[in-house]
Design a protein that fits this description.
With about 425 residues, the chain is α/β, with parallel strands linked by helices. The protein contains eleven helices and 14 strands. It is about 25% helix and about 15% strand.
Length: about 425
């Protein structure tokens, strides 16, 4: 099966997770007795190839277009907000900028840090890049927003992080806080844009303001259909920064990209999204993080398998999560989980079908949702959870979010930098 290239050339002590997960619920006494564990498949069909070779060769990332942004950095004191996906070819952006004489002063690491190799939920500490000697400061943990002290000797912040197009993937929350700090402290922001691997569609409920958290800061749907550059334009244009401020924003678009371009990421964006197929399934499966169903953290198949001890033992697949480098304390740690292997599922797109199925088949429905707020903050409202518990169909649930989704699609058009999907 296709897997991302290994990561890590710079030595930074910064860390990484995929989306915030509510605390693990206690195991149910009604869970079925264990049965022999289904063997892991040694050979599986590759997920659908979604990047057309012609399209891939014609794309030029924002970071590769030096003529468009190096003049903006000349003579400036620069901070970079990056992780392991910020590359120019095979070289890290930080190394490239330093080689070109750019005055990089500091590296800011988001929730997953620069190397992207740490376990989910791990604490991120400030450190130093061993290659460049630059300070590497965390924007995850106690300080999610750059402080005035962090930016006092900075003129420009350069943001280059690969997103996956889901509202709860927290790099866009980091981008929001970077823009907000820049607006408050009169600094410039340059976004070096990259394609959105889930940017070919828009779906899901729009987040309601009462459910705004770090895993959902904006009134956008689960699958927002924007690159980070387009989303930054929306945040600025809709005045979503604190106090209605707007930052000095420049976006360097991807040359040759359209929202019809189906794009596989060359680097894994975080430890628990190891394949393009997991990236495609992520918008649907991350909702299980608010339930007792494991999405495969603590296995070699995160976000490609689902299961729980409270599912029928007759389900076709089983696995047992155990601590690994990507998850030191995975949900359902050491427990046999009965469910499905989705590595050969060919369909992509946001769906509630797995969630509805696993709720209906749960042997302990009272404990299926780990907490009201946990699931609700991921889906962006309290209504969907209540509809699931009431036995509503996906079609009925979708009717409730359609008006908000339609209004968002209209607003979205104002901020597009690329031709839209058909």
């Amino acid at each position: 099966m296709y897997s991302f290239l290994p990561t890590g050339l710079l030595s930074l002590s910064l860390l990484f997770t995929d989306c915030t997960r509510p605390p693990q619920a206690a195991p149910s006494a009604s869970a079925p007795a264990p049965r022999p564990e289904a063997p892991l498949q040694q050979t599986v069909a590759s997920p659908p190839q979604v990047l057309l070779p012609a399209a891939a060769s014609s794309l030029k990332m924002g970071a590769e277009q030096f003529d468009k942004y190096l003049p903006l950095l000349k003579g400036k004191r620069v901070a970079v907000v990056v992780n392991q996906t910020a590359r120019v070819g095979k070289a890290f952006l930080v190394d490239t900028l330093l080689a070109k004489g750019v005055g990089v002063q500091v590296i800011f690491g988001p929730e997953h840090g620069f190397r992207g190799e740490a376990a989910d939920g791990a604490t991120i500490k400030d450190g130093k890049d061993a290659r460049s000697g630059l300070p590497a400061l965390s924007l995850y943990g106690a300080t999610k927003k750059p402080t005035p002290e962090m930016l006092k000797d900075i003129d420009v912040l350069v943001f280059d992080i690969q997103d996956v197009g889901a509202r709860f993937y927290t790099f866009i929350s980091t981008m929001h806080y970077v823009m907000e700090a820049a607006a408050e402290q009169n600094k410039q922001v340059i976004i070096l844009d990259r394609p959105n691997p889930n940017g070919w569609y828009v779906d899901g409920p729009v987040l309601e303001p009462a459910f705004k958290t770090f895993v959902g800061m904006h009134p956008i749907p689960v699958v927002h259909g924007l690159t980070v550059g387009e989303l930054a334009r929306m945040i600025n244009g809709e005045k979503w920064l604190a106090g209605g401020r707007q930052c000095q924003l420049t976006v360097i678009p991807v040359a040759g990209y359209t929202h019809s371009t189906r794009y596989d990421l060359p680097e894994r964006p975080s430890p628990n999204l190891p394949t393009p197929h997991s990236v495609a399934l992520y918008p649907s499966l991350c909702l299980f993080e608010g339930t007792d169903v494991s999405v495969g953290r603590g296995t070699a198949m995160p976000f490609e398998v689902i299961g729980a001890p409270t599912q029928p033992s007759t389900r076709p697949f089983s696995f047992t999560p155990t601590p690994n480098s990507g998850s030191t304390s995975p949900p359902q740690n050491g427990k046999r989980c009965y469910g499905q292997d989705l590595r050969q599922v060919g369909d992509v797109g946001f769906t509630l079908k797995y969630l509805l199925d696993y709720y209906q088949q749960s042997t302990n429905k009272e404990k299926f949702f780990l907490s009201d707020r946990g699931f609700d903050r991921l889906i962006g409202n309290a209504t969907v959870r209540q509809q699931i518990m009431a036995g509503k169909s996906e079609a009925e649930i979708r009717q409730g979010w359609e008006p908000g989704l339609t209004a968002y699609k209209t607003m979205r058009k104002k901020y597009l930098l690329y031709p839209d999907f058909k």
